Amino acid sequence: MKEIDWSKLSFGYMKTDYNVRCYYRDGQWGELELCSEETLNIHMAATCLHYGQEAFEGLKAYRGKDGKIRVFRPQANAERLQSTCRGILMPELSTEKFCEAVRMVVKANERFIPPYESGASLYIRPLLIGTGAQVGVHPASEYLFVIFVTPVGPYFKGGFATNPYVIIREFDRAAPLGTGTFKVGGNYAASLRANKMAHDAGYASEFYLDAKEKKYIDECGAANFFGIKDNTYVTPLSSSILPSITNRSLMQLAEDMGMKVERRPIPEEELATFEEAGACGTAAVISPIERIDDLENHKSYVIAKDGKPGAISEKLYNKLRAIQYGDEADPYGWVMIVE
């Protein structure tokens, strides 16, 4: 793959050799199939197109210094997809079949896994859609599970550097008791206008408060929020936040570093008390927050006073990345090695 400049990859789509597919028909899942076609042939009345019966996941594969290929926490992604399936009435794919599909697609596209220390990785996108034709608002009888992969560079061009965020109250990403805890496309469609507003105003992303009262912190764009103060890792507890696998991992690492971990509602005004803060997710791992502006109330919560990532955030970031790349031992059993 000498023709790819790994250091200049964007976080976008690049054609690779194969994807993996599996069909649900007659009440059961079929066998995994390797496919080289990039497009899907689905019925125009498919429930994914009309009623949002669609779920997806995101995870990554990394090439280590030892040449081994590691996938980070695929079991957790399988479990989250199963939770989404229960939420929008789609058939669950077993953890074993999910991990087998991940292993198959990564192995089939091994030549697209960026080299160690290139700053790039192989992004893995599982997708589950309702393909059965349905005009009434009901679950489909047939489904398609697909996994494709693409090599990607850093989500934010600056890499591990602080970014500014802006509170936007005009739009909600998800509502309490809605689909916020599930990884469905509708939540992301609902965020597009707010995200564009933030980008047009010069911010890295939008910052959401809770949809019900507009008092508590919800999410940073498509990522979970965490704040650090008094040797405590604080992250929101909300019924409309997607449970981030990266955030769960960081909580575990913080606890093992001797920090206290709190999951609780965080009122907006508490932003003024954090020594460090970040947005976390699969794409960027951690995006440290420089400041969060509240333009409506003419406030700016400046978190990174010197404009640089905080020491604890950097330590957490480096620790998690070291496990993902195999530079440090994985005592948690998070990594799946593809051979």
Written description of the protein model:
The protein is of the alpha+beta class and 339 residues long. It starts with 18 loop residues before the first strand and ends with a strand. 44% of the residues are buried. It has helices at residues 47-50, 74-87, 95-108, 185-189, 192-200, 245-256, 311-325, and strands at 19-25, 28-29, 33-35, 54-56, 59-63, 69-72, 121-130, 143-152, 163-167, 205-209, 217-220, 223-229, 232-236, 260-264, 276-281, 285-294, 299-302, 335-338. The radius of gyration is 20 Å and the shape is globular. The protein folds into two domains: 19-152, D-amino Acid Aminotransferase, Chain A, domain 1, CATH 3.30.470; 163-325, Alpha-Beta Barrel (D-amino Acid Aminotransferase, Chain A, domain 2), CATH 3.20.10.
Give the tally of β-strands: 18
The description of the largest β-sheet is: 9 strands, antiparallel
CATH superfamily of the largest domain: D-amino Acid Aminotransferase, subunit A, domain 2
Determine the number of helices (DSSP H or I, runs of at least 4 residues). 7
Q: From the alpha carbons, calculate the radius of gyration and give it in angstroms.
A: 20 Å
Unreliable runs? none
Distance between the termini: 19 Å
The CATH topology of the largest domain turns out to be: D-amino Acid Aminotransferase, Chain A, domain 2
Which bin fits the share of residues in helices?
Answer: 10-25%
Give the amount of beta strand, in percent. 25-35%
Mean pLDDT: 96
Structural class: alpha+beta
Q: What is the second-level CATH architecture of the largest domain? A: Alpha-Beta Barrel
Order of helices and strands: EEEHEEEHHEEEHHEEEEHEEEEHE
Form type: globular
